[in-house]
Amino acid sequence: MARDILTDLAFENVHKCLGIPDWNESDEVILVSLANKEQIEADKNYRSTENCNYFGKRICIFCEQVKKNNYITLHKSMLEKIIKTMESFKDAEQMKGEEND
Question: Could you say which residues of the chain have pLDDT below 70?
Answer without folding.
Answer: 1-26, 89-94, 100-101
